Amino acid sequence: MIRRTQQGLIAEGVVVSVAKLCAWFGIPRRTVYYKPVKAAPKVEARFSEPIKKLIEEEPSFGYRTVAWLLGFNKNTVQRIFQIKGWQVRKRAVGMRPRIQVEGEGEWHARKHGGPKRRVWRKIHLGVDEETLEIRAVEITGSHIGDAPVLPDLLSQISEGQEIGSVTADGAYDTRKCHDAIADRGAHAVIPPRKNAKPWKTVTAGAVARNEALRASKYLGRAIWRRWRGYHRRSRVETKMHCVKRMGQRLMARNFDSQVAELQVRIAVLNGYTALGIPITEAAG
Q1: Strand 249-250 relative to strand 98-101: parallel, antiparallel, unpaired?
Q2: What's phi and psi for 207, nearest 5 deg?
Q3: Is the pTM of this model over 0.85?
Q4: How far apart are CA 181 and CA 185, in angstroms?
Q5: At what angle do helices 221-228 and 204-219 cross, to 10 degrees?
Q6: How do residues 90-128 score in pLDDT, each as one tens digit?
């Protein structure tokens, strides 16, 4: 206001200083001379580019996991997430695909006392939706994401056997997963993330994913899930619950023995499944 008034007086041939105008209007001079200008926060490319690449491959990774994998400070990564507006895709509600291991820290604490150090192993299952038989399994450390394991799960099913569709949660909405599913000639039933954008149609997997994205935006996410039968993924969650009912701890100490122990449990569970599964029908 002071500057506009001064320019108007100058246009009329009257020269008045800013100090006098401030005195006339009762406005402190510092409000005219010192205007705080807050520049937009800057993010260095050496930080943002590796972080963006990693969360595109693993949308479920939080800033702590990203900072640990890239060797960055977690506060810096968290600030970049806030500035860029990057959101983390949360895992769907259900059984967590991990099992506790009695690591060296827990054994030492049980024998000699002291703080415990928990060690976890993640179980990745490929379940036949019709027979509920576990057809593929991968055991990894807790730092390994879900999406990188999907190609290995599909490779455990023989090439001569046809796969109709692969249903998974939004953590598998990555290029590698869609390409691996398309290479097996299967349909991907994976919900795109809320802020998803179309991919470049370079591969068959990208084309199928873009079609799913257009359909979910046109129909709505809830209708798209019912239309694609995404709710049947809950049968896999039930199978994970059955695996954990056989014990939520591993007694083996080294990784290879832990894998063998879980393989035995899954073989026993498949034997029970082969005897028969319940058939549920709606009544009334």
Answers
A1: parallel
A2: -65, -45
A3: no
A4: 7
A5: 120
A6: 454 444 555 555 555 555 555 656 555 567 888 888 888
